[in-house]
Amino acid sequence: MRMEVHVHADIPILEGVSRKQIEQALVPWLDYLDAEAVADVKSLEPEEPGIRYDEKELMLQVCWTGEIGRSFLGALEAALEQLGPFCYEAVEVDVTLYHENGEQENRLLFVGPTAQAIHEAQRRCMIEDVTALLERQFDKDRIAGVVALVNELFDRDWREKAAQPKKPERAFEYTTRPSRKHLH
Asked: Are 5 and 66 in contact (CB under 8 A)?
């Protein structure tokens, strides 16, 4: 069963990382797409750049739509895990799956240099989402308590993870997000 996907992210890259290193990290994704290099990745949507590495700005820009099968997410996750150590900071990678029946599924993948950096990016995104949702009804002063609670939950979660036996540090994480329409 094939479906369509849109992947969107602006991933800041560490200074000194070469295009070749970026492409080597992205090999699982490139292999899935049967592409030799980032420049070979074309989006189904002509106005989207696909995958582009701006060496001056040290930014890996992803705005790509393509047809995929079941193993795509595994290839994307493997690529992000390999890309993590080259990231300047942790950021979200927005993945929207468009099913044949018209349903849409949104996922947020997180890529970054360390598990803690990813945890902080997840916190930032959660606070942004909760704040945006509550600001539709309440002013900022009234939602400060909710933001403090979200921060407390993330702090507790990090302490619990730190207390667990060491696991290999992953350079990406994912979560699902309520479906939203993308306009860009």
From this structure: yes
Q: With respect to residue 184, please indicate whether it lies within any of the assigned structural domains.
A: no
Reported as a single tens digit per residue, the pLDDT across 64-90 is 999 998 899 999 999 999 999 999 999
Q: Which residue has the tokens 């992205």?
A: 26
**Which H or E run includes 59?**
strand 59-68
**Cα–Cα nearest to 88, from 167, 175, 20, 16:** 16
Find where tokens 């060496």 sit.
Answer: 55
8-state DSSP, 58 = T
Residue 66 falls inside a structural domain: yes
What gap in Å lies between CA 104 and CA 102, rounded to an integer?
7
Pair (22, 97) in one structural domain:
yes
- Same-domain pairing of 120 and 110: no
**Side-chain-side CA neighbours of residue 35 (13 Å):** 19
Q: Would the pTM of this model clear 0.85, i.e. be above it?
A: no
Contacts of 106 (CB under 8 A, 6+ apart): 94, 95, 96, 97, 176, 177, 178, 179, 180
**Same domain membership, residue 134 and residue 80:** no
